[in-house]
Each structure stands twice: as C-alpha cells, then as structure tokens.
Amino acid sequence: MKVTPRVLFASVISLCASSPLLAAENAKEGYYGALNLIDTHQKAKSMNLSERPGIGSFVPGDEKEHKQNGSVAVGYQFGNNWRTEAEYVFKEKTEFTSGSSTFATSFNHMKVDSERAMLNVYRDFMITDKFALYATAGAGVAKVKVGGWQGNDSREFAGNTQTNFTYSVGAGTSYEVIDDLTLYATYRYVDMGNIESGRNTFVNARGLQDENLRGRLVNNEFVFGVRYVL
C-alpha cells in the first residue's frame, strides 16, 4: 500500500486512540535535548505551474534531490507518555530542473534554500520499560529562498524569500540504552507549501518579464537521533 500523508495522519490518530491498549510504564518527567541526523528526500511538486508562456508544453526534469541534513531540539517529557519540543532544522540547498517542448535544451534550474523552525508533539507507546513506538505531528514555519537560471547561469531569475506555514506527521521507534539516554528513528512527511522565484531578469524572446519558477516543496525524512533527559 502506498503511504500518503492522509494515510500516515490517519495512522497517527489511530495510534493515539489506542493508547489504553498499549500504555505501559510512564517515562521520566523532565526537560531534554536532542540531536538529529536527517536523511532527506526533497521534491518540488507541481513545477508545471511555473510561468513560462509561449514556449510549448511543460517537460519535467529532475524534481527530486537526496540530501543529508541535521537538526537540534529542546523539549519537555511530561511523564504521561506525551512530549513536546521545539526543533530547528538546518538550512538545506537543493536544485530542481524543468523544460519545455519548444526549447528542449534550455532547462530551468530552480535553486532552493530552505530551513525551518517547528513545534512538535509526540505520543509514546511503551512496549517495555526501554522500548517504545511513537506517533508525532508538528507545525511551524519554513524560510525558503528561491532563485535560479534558464539555459545558462547568466540568464537569472530574481531571488524571492518567503516564510511558509509548514506541517509534519510521522511515526517512529525509540530505545533507552542507558538511564535518560535514548536512541530513536523516525519517518516523517513534511510539507513546506508553495514556493516561487522572482521574475526573469534576462530578456526573453518576447522582451518581457513574464516568467518565474514555481513548485510545492515537500520532504520525506528519515530521522536518526539521540535524546537526553536532564
């Protein structure tokens, strides 16, 4: 079965609803810090919405990029198997391409810088006193800068910086290796919303500034981290 954001969200709700069946010993209460390594699969969806009139049909290029990134987080563990945390995900640079049927060799290169600050909520389901499954959801803001070029890097699109509402849903597993020190792995889907560059700064075939680059920025992330309760 294909895992979609809707299916994942429904699974998160189902896990939370089943907590009486899965609940075991509650975790220690207190503040914690966390460090994460993030295996990121980023995609620029809906690039066909880019404005590039009069040049034929949209031709997809490279709409995905695989990067390694990281984040830091601080949070509070309530002792009733709920946790909340603030997370900062470091800046990530990616590039995506698209073309047209009229100018087959003149690809658009959309260059994206993205970073985000999130407020995450976790629900732990203790399987043993050391091992847990958990569901997570988050909301926050992403700062995204979009620019790029067409054909060659002297034909630039103006840069555009925007701040977008961002959400995430996910699930994972954790293991307390020693007292207060926990290793964990999470899968999460992240949607950073619609993005677009500024207009073309170069002279196009029509002598107009009527082109820009657009997409919807989403991540599939595999997070590997360590958490220490103070």
UniProtKB/TrEMBL annotation:
Signal sequence interval, chain numbering: 1-23
Residue ranges annotated for the Outer membrane protein beta-barrel domain, each copy included: 14-226
Keywords noted in UniProt: Signal
Protein name from the UniProt record: Porin family protein
Organism: Enterobacter mori
